[in-house]
Design a protein that fits this description.
Layout: E1 2-5, E2 8-11, H1 14-17, H2 22-26, E3 28-33, H3 42-46, E4 50-53, H4 73-84, E5 106-110, H5 117-130, H6 134-142, H7 154-165, H8 176-189, H9 194-202, E6 218-219, E7 226-230, E8 236-239, E9 257-262, E10 268-274, E11 281-283, H10 291-296, E12 301-305, E13 312-317, E14 321-322, E15 328-329, E16 332-336, E17 340-344, E18 349-350
Helix pairs in contact: 4-5, 5-6, 5-7, 8-9
């Protein structure tokens, strides 16, 4: 095990399984376990340690390489806070600064190997409590890993970048980038869309309540908020906050070209078209009025009809689809720009999926 900062230690499960007297040797009072235990070692309870087990294998929907660590960040940070800074009146890092305050106890954060998942939570804590950016926090941990080498997986690195994009302080389950990351990961494992359907059916956060077709009107006061409306009946379909933004590929890249294939094998390139300058699709998060189509009809791809007039307004493809700019989006859930109007909404009442025809 290695001492990272003050009373924060990180390591593998070995000190736990070999009954190292952590309290006597390292003044450890709290243990954060980032792995699945069939049964918490009884001696830890008898010795008076305060324990928290983040059961990272508790969700059968996720394979090991896409396990969702970030959703436990807030509770992990709170546990670490109370371990090394007990009895503080306010723990909000946006309101109080603990730099210079002596840490009163120690915590041991471990995973099975101690080189990946445990490091993830330590890095997130340094960002949350001390305002480090991702590069600073990662370096602070890596430089102190003497007995064990830090080896962050691609999955962990992606989630660290997500946490930084959220501001590096608190995890937000409603963050659009997080939702898109979950869908993309599921589709990498199961391109049929079945895993994605199971995930969004289980996770209510994948659909924003205020966009429910049966929801009450929501008061909006945002200068930059826009809404997509059906061209035919003016039904509100999506808010700009639900857009999945993307950067068009460089004009010189292969991705910005559409290749037409033919010949006997169907693989010979017989034509090339450049991508369009303007995107003709609005890629969005799964919206509540889409729920029945996405969940009850087990289709790989399909069309979206306006809930107001049943005109075709978009489509989905669980395997992904390309925007007119050439960018590949996975999954491809979109509204067609030619079928909707984008309208600025300022200090107006907005209800997505509720009939607004006059």
């Amino acid at each position: 095990m290695d001492k990272i900062l003050g009373g924060i230690y990180v390591g593998s499960v070995v000190p736990i399984m070999t009954h190292v007297p952590l309290k006597v040797e390292y003044h450890v009072s709290h243990i954060l376990s980032c792995m699945k235990f069939d049964k918490i070692p009884e001696y830890l309870v008898k010795k008076g340690y305060t324990l928290k087990n983040i059961d990272l294998n508790d969700d059968s929907l996720y394979f090991d390489d896409i396990v969702d660590l970030i959703k436990y960040v807030n509770e992990a940070n709170e546990f670490i806070d109370h371990a090394i800074f007990p009895n503080e009146e306010n723990y909000n890092p946006l309101e109080v600064n603990f730099k210079g305050i002596k840490q009163k106890s120690a915590i041991f954060i471990h995973s099975f190997k101690g080189s990946n998942r445990a490091c993830f939570y330590v890095i997130c804590y340094l960002m949350y409590r001390f305002g480090f950016n991702l590069k600073q926090a990662t370096y602070a941990v890596d430089r102190k890993m003497i007995n064990n080498k830090m080896e962050l997986s691609d999955n962990v690195l992606e989630q660290l970048e997500l946490f930084q994009a959220m501001g590096g302080r608190f995890f937000d389950a409603n963050n659009s980038e997080y939702k898109q990351w979950k869908l993309t990961k599921c589709n990498e494992i199961d391109p049929s869309g079945q895993l994605s359907r199971e995930m969004i059916a289980k996770d209510n956060n994948m659909f924003e309540e205020e966009e429910s077709a049966s929801s009450d009107k929501v008061e909006i006061d945002e200068k930059d908020l826009q809404v997509l409306r059906c061209k035919k009946c003016r039904q509100n379909l999506a808010k700009s906050s639900s857009f999945i933004n993307h950067e068009p590929p460089a004009k010189t890249s292969k991705e910005s070209h559409f290749f037409k294939r033919g010949g006997i094998s169907g693989n010979r390139i017989v034509g090339v078209e450049k991508s369009q300058d303007m995107c003709t699709h609005y890629f969005v998060e799964p919206l509540n009025w889409m729920k029945e189509k996405l969940l009850t009809e087990e289709l790989l791809e399909g069309k979206f009809l306006c809930p107001g007039c049943e005109a075709k307004v978009g489509a989905f493809n669980w395997k992904g689809s390309r925007c007119s700019c050439g960018k590949w989006m996975n999954p491809g859930i979109h509204l067609q720009a030619s079928k909707v109007d984008k309208v600025d909404v300022i200090k107006k009442q907005l209800a997505i999926g509720v009939d607004r025809r006059e």
